[in-house]
Amino acid sequence: MKNIFLIFVFVFIANLAVNAQHPRRHDGLPHYVDAEVLRKKGQFQQAVTEYEKALRNEPSNYSYLYGKALAEFQGRNSESSVESLSSLFKLKSDFAPAYLLLAQIYQQKGDLNHAMAFLDSAAKYDSNVENKLKYKFTITNKYIKDNNFKLAFDKAKDMHVLAPKDLKIVYYFARLANVNGHYQEVINAIMPIENAIKALPNESAKYYYELGFAYFHSNEFVKARQAWEKAKVGEFAAKIEQFSGKHFLGIATTYYKFRDDKQALHYIEVAEKIQTDISDTHLLKAQISKRESAKKNKDIKHHLEALVKSEQNAAKKEKYLSDLSEMYLDSEEYDNCLKTIALAEKDKPNDMRLKFLKAIALHKKGDYKEAGVVIQEVLKNSGNPPLDFVMLSGLNAKSMNNTALAKQTFTRLLKSPYRGVAEIELKTIK
Q1: Fewest beta carbons less than 10 Å away: which of 284, 306, 325, 380?
Q2: DSSP state, residue 241
Q3: The CATH number of domain 164-238 is 1.25.40
């Protein structure tokens, strides 16, 4: 019995020692309550004083530190608020509201990169999924505004993991995935919610457009057409047209016109993969083959050369010279082409077709500076510059590594019939 009493005494004394070192759990609560009342009244300095009293009694209470940091921030003392939050993190490193407050502080300072980093931490530690998504949306939009689509996609992916059936998030994720070239992820995200999309008749087109875009760039052209058939409304109808066989045949025709047969054949192939029944692709391939044969067949050129020498009729001679110039250009005999054009220009110095052939011949020969002189002469003297010369100006500038002029020219052509080629060329300029 005596031993039991001694044990009790020792335990009692030990408890007294512990309590002497650690005040009772709620000793700071009255001060905290007063501090909260003062803070909500806008009396921030008085509130900070009460929070400090609460902390003297309970120095390990992170809620009191958070209240103090909040009052300091609201009282426009951000530096002290940051110090209080730093002390808080030593006690509890996963306290989401503290990271959210830090994000607000750095956003107010204009340091958006740090603000987004702290907002990301808030999303990491907040247990409320709705809050996590709200924070991630803010971060994603910031990266989109900065044109940092890679980081924007990473955050959108985080959102999609949290809410894979949320239609708004799926669309957001799909758009950014397509921008970043993650086409299979678009397909994997949209297909499981297709039934839900069908129930949105007024909005389903935007989902099917993204799905078709992903299939198209995965070279699954049949599936792309099937998806896009459900998206041919409003603004999406025009967008889809840019991926039609007809559109790519137009691009091929433009490259053919500017003597880039390699690119022309590539886009003919794309057009045929998308749409197998475009008869004009065969016509364009025949024209390219005719050019190839011109390099080997010298007889026709010899006959035309003889006609030019013997023809007395001025009008006929001009036509033969023009035809011969183009034939030399087709067979890549650029010096002969330029000599023939020089003869033709004696009688027709302002003939636009001859000037175009001359500029093309100089460009293909690699005399970019001389080609630029011819092109600029036409552009400066034309009130409404011919689009052929504008396009050639862009191609020539690109070959000269004049990136600024090339970008400016192709951008100008985005609202022209040469838009398709202009978009392609802009993507190749670094």
Answers
A1: 380
A2: H
A3: yes
